[in-house]
Amino acid sequence: MTRGKLILIEGLDRTGKSTQSEKIVKELGDEVVLFKFPERSTPIGGLINQYLTDRSFDLPPQSIHLLFSANRWEVNAKICSLLESGKHVVLDRYVYSGVAYSAAKQIPGMDISWCLNPDKGLVKPDLTLFLSNQDSSSLQDRDGYGEERYEKAAFQKKVRETFFQVFDAIPDDNRVIVDVTGKSIEQVFDTIMPLVRKVLGNNSEDYLYF
Ligand code: ADP
Ligand code: FDM
Ligand code: MG
C-alpha cells in the first residue's frame, strides 16, 4: 500500500483556508482526514484557545510559541499513523503559521531559526498551498474578523511579510503561492484542486521532515 499524502493549506487570517480545506475534504470523501491547527480540543489547545480569545490571559511570546508547537506534536502520532494507513491528511495551518506569526512579533532572540527549532522533525507536507491576498485590508470585511488576538490590520501586514521571509529561509519544493485576490470561493477551488489531485496521484514513499 502506498502511504497517504500530506496537504497543507496556509495563509493569513480570513484568506479562505478553512473554506477550501473543507471543500477538498468534501470532494475527496473517506480517503482524507482534516486537521486544523491550533487543535483547540486538546489540553494544550485549550490554553491556546484561551490565549487567542481572552485578552486578560497573557503569556510570554516564547511560551505561547512553544505551546503552538507542542500542540502540533500532540497530534503528530495520529497524523503519521493515518498517512501510514494510506489515508491522505489535509491540514488547515501548520508549521509555517507557527513560525510566521511568532517571528512577526519581532522579539529579540525569537528569529525564524529559533521559531522553527521546536517543530524540527515534524513531517513536511507533500504539497503546501499558501493562499495569498495582495491586499490584506480587504479581508477585514469578512465575517468574524477582529474577534481574536492576532486579527489586527497592522499585525497581519507584518505577518504577511514574515511569511515570505519564512519561505526564503525554509526551502520547500512542494510549496505553491496561490494568488486569491478578487477570486471567488469556486475560482480558488478550481485553481487548487488540480494541484491536490496531482500530488495524490504520485507514489512517492519517502517522507520529508522540517
Ligand atoms: P480562514 O480559515 O482563512 O480564516 P475562512 O475560510 O474561514 O478563512 O473564510 C473567512 C470568511 O470569508 C468566511 O465567511 C468565508 O465564507 C469567506 N470567504 C472565504 N473565501 C472567500 C472568497 N474567495 N471570496 C469571498 N469570501 C470568501
Ligand atoms: N497561529 C496558528 C499561531 O500564531 N501559531 C501557530 O502555530 C498556529 C497554528 O493562531 F491568528 C495563529 C494564527 C491565527 C490563530 O488560527 C488562530 P485560526 O486558523 O484562526 O484558528
Ligand atoms: Mg480558518
Query: What's the overall geometry?
Result: globular
Number of DSSP helical runs: 7
Bound molecules: adenosine-5'-diphosphate, 3'-fluoro-3'-deoxythymidine monophosphate, magnesium ion
- Average pLDDT works out at 95
Structural class: alpha/beta
How many strands, what sense, and barrel or not for the largest sheet? 5 strands, parallel
Strand % is 5-15%
Uncertain segments: none
- How far apart the termini lie comes to 25 Å
Helix content: 40-55%
SSE topology string: EHEHHEHHEEHEHE
Radius of gyration: 16 Å
Number of strands: 7
Strand numbers in spatial order across the main sheet: 2-3-1-5-6
Task: Give a verbal description of the structure.
Pathway: Pyrimidine metabolism; dTTP biosynthesis. Residues 9-192 form the Thymidylate kinase-like domain. Keywords: ATP-binding, Kinase, Nucleotide biosynthesis, Nucleotide-binding, Transferase. With 210 residues, the protein is α/β, with parallel strands linked by helices. It has seven helices and seven strands. It has helices spanning 17-28, 43-53, 61-84, 95-103, 112-116, 153-169, 185-201, and strands spanning 6-11, 32-36, 88-92, 123-124, 127-132, 175-179, 208-209. The strands form two sheets. A five-stranded parallel beta sheet has the order 2-3-1-5-6, sandwiched between helices. It has a two-stranded antiparallel ribbon with strand order 4-7. Helix 1 (17-28) packs across helix 7, helix 3 packs antiparallel against helix 4 (95-103) and helix 4 packs across helix 6. The longest helix is centred in the middle third of the chain and has 24 residues, at 61-84. The protein binds adenosine-5'-diphosphate, 3'-fluoro-3'-deoxythymidine monophosphate (FDM) and magnesium ion.
